[in-house]
Design a protein that fits this description.
Layout lengths: L9 E8 L1 E2 L2 E8 L5 E4 L2 E3 L6 H13 L2 E15 L7 E13 L9 E8 H4 L16 H12 L5 E3 L1
Parallel strand pairs: 1-7, 6-9
Antiparallel strand pairs: 1-5, 2-3, 3-4, 3-8, 6-7
């Protein structure tokens, strides 16, 4: 039972499903290895910041859109990247929201913002190496797959 005595860094993040005409808004970001990663708008919460406020702030930064009326969809929680230098305990919230404004990202890591048809979302996801990269863990995408299919669960233990 030694694993109970370990202290893991906590990673809290919030992402928002922005939907328009059966399209999901995704951001394109350049990864450290130069590849392009497609993800939901949102990101890490700052110290002392709640997940809802993190979602609003990060969506504005990554897309230029203002989101309001957040509705909680799901929470993904558990240990990730065990045995790597990025080992962490993750709490990732997903919301839906109303949005206004125009797409105008100010995050320098964002190289594009795209409305992607539901049927094409999963085809853009790159699983696999590097193993230190939680975005490429298939479990991260299970809540999104369920959301697109119309049957999201509230809780996803990792």
């Amino acid at each position: 039972m030694s694993h109970l005595s370990r202290t893991l860094p906590l990673k809290r993040a919030a992402h928002v499903y922005l939907v328009q005409d059966k399209h999901l808004l995704l951001v394109e970001e350049r990864m450290d290895d130069g590849s392009i990663f497609y993800g939901l708008p949102g990101g890490k919460a700052l110290a002392g910041e709640n997940l809802g406020d993190a979602a609003v702030r990060q969506v504005k930064l990554e897309t230029g859109l203002t989101v309001t009326d957040l509705n909680f969809v799901s929470l993904l929680e558990g240990e990730m990247l065990t045995g790597t230098r990025n080992e962490t305990y993750a709490m990732f919230a997903r919301f839906t929201a109303h949005f206004t404004g125009r797409i105008d990202p100010t995050d320098p890591e964002v190289v594009g913002v795209k409305w992607v048809p539901f049927a094409q979302v999963e085809g853009l996801v790159r699983y696999g190496p590097p193993p230190e990269c939680e975005e490429r863990n298939p479990l991260i995408w299970v809540p999104t797959r369920d959301f697109i299919a119309g049957n999201p669960r509230t809780y996803y233990p990792i």
